[in-house]
Design brief:
Elements (H helix, E strand, L loop, with lengths): L1 E6 L9 E22 L4 E20 L9 E19 L4 E14 L2 E17 L2 E12 L3 H4 L3 E3 L4 E4 L7 E12 L3 E11 L2 E6 L7 E7 L2 E15 L3 E16 L7 E19 L3 E11 L2 E3 L2 E3 L2 E12 L4 E8 L8 E6 L2 E6 L6 E8 L20
Length: 385
């Protein structure tokens, strides 16, 4: 539920004022059955089925008569049938295999799709200090119900967010190869292919002075990533962890309004976390971390390089049960994204100037014998206005 009181501070002749009321009601039911068998010491078998049904009602009303065409009253029904089977098998002490496959039928209004989602995980211990892991995964991502309703949300007098009733889910196919050296150094290569990928982007219409934020299905988004995690220590006073990634991203949309794009870009990302022990008794540590990213892309967006530095000092006492921490985030206030669009007649510059720097003081205490209960969270990713 959301109510918006909108009024622009402009000359009277350009004044815009309205009240909008948005409501969303979602009813979801899921029935499932799972079965697990341990056939022997080396082989396990899992299988099951599930059915989910969702009814979604979206309503948006404007009090201004001139905006009555934007009033919305939509109902969406969604069905998902799933059947899966999986197995784990240990060939010997060095080689293990886990595989599963899921068959799904998805129906949302007039959209229907049969899909198969396989997964595979293979682990091989070359020696006690050398481990290889390979995995292949496939999964799907659905748009939020509010976006699929086609609702119009006014951000200000110039910017507006418009939903898309024709938006389709997309699938993520990814392959991942990891090499682990001495149980701590990790080197990885990952490739992902996402056909019909979607994300929110800005579009400038040629016939009006507006900035429209909208979700559209692309042809695909491909990403090749090389990464490494390199921890090291110097004595007992310095512990460090360096993470480096090189990413080749390929975004393509042949039918994106009148501004299609087909772009590739290498992006480098570095994260360096450090812990310095000033004293063991009393236990006082300083944490220093840095993040940096080179130029990147998202569709027709070009994201300029950015980075930040954080620092903290922590005092731990009462047999490690209590701690006091003083933390300063984004010391130089440099984590302000700057994005440009240079795509045909689509020309825009977006600079987010906000104060990300923050200073926090926190205290924590761990009670003896306390164990946090694991509670399964409800998936609300597709909810909300």
């Amino acid at each position: 539920m959301e109510d918006q009181h909108f009024q622009t501070l402009q000359p009277v002749e350009a004044l815009q004022k309205f009240l909008s009321s948005s409501r969303q009601v979602i009813n979801r039911c899921k029935i499932y059955a799972d079965q697990h068998h341990i056939l022997n010491q080396a082989w396990q078998l899992d299988y099951g089925t599930s059915f989910s049904y969702v009814t979604n009602s979206n309503r948006q009303q404007y009090d201004a008569p001139t905006m009555s065409k934007q009033n919305l009253d939509s109902r969406i029904k969604e069905y998902t049938y799933n059947l899966y089977a999986g197995s784990e098998y240990k060939f010997n002490k060095k080689l293990s295999l886990s595989a599963s496959v899921s068959l799904e039928f998805y129906k949302m209004m007039n959209y229907k799709k049969w899909a198969i989602y396989p997964t595979l995980q293979l682990g091989y211990i070359i020696s006690p200090f050398h481990l290889l892991q390979f995995s292949f995964n496939s999964d799907k991502t659905y748009p939020s119900y509010w976006v699929m309703s086609g609702a119009i949300n006014h951000i200000d007098n110039y910017q507006v967010a418009i939903g898309n009733t024709y938006l389709k889910p997309y699938t993520d196919y990814s392959a991942h190869l990891s090499y682990i050296l001495k149980h701590k150094y990790i080197f990885q290569m990952r490739y992902s292919h996402r056909p019909h990928y979607f994300t929110q982007m800005m579009y400038l219409p040629p016939n009006e002075l507006k900035s429209i934020y909208n979700y559209q299905n692309w042809d695909y988004m491909n990403q090749l990533t090389f990464s490494s995690i390199l921890p090291f220590k110097i004595g007992k006073w310095w512990s460090s962890r360096l993470s480096l990634s090189a990413i080749l991203k390929h975004d393509k949309a042949s039918h994106y309004f009148d501004a299609p794009f087909d772009r590739k870009q290498w992006t480098g990302i570095g994260i360096w976390n450090n812990t310095f022990t000033l004293s063991q008794k009393p236990d006082i540590k300083i944490e220093l971390s840095a993040f940096g990213q080179t130029k990147g892309i998202q569709g027709s967006y070009t994201i300029k390089p950015m980075g930040k530095t954080d620092a903290a000092i922590r005092y731990t006492f009462l047999n490690q049960a209590a701690s006091i921490q003083l933390r300063l985030n984004d010391i130089f206030n440099s984590m302000n994204p700057y994005t440009t669009i240079r795509n045909g007649v689509q020309i825009a510059d977006m600079s987010v100037k906000r104060n990300q720097r923050s200073l926090t003081l926190s205290f924590s205490y761990k009670f003896k014998g306390f164990k946090e209960k694991e509670v399964k969270e409800i998936d609300t990713q597709r909810f909300g206005l």
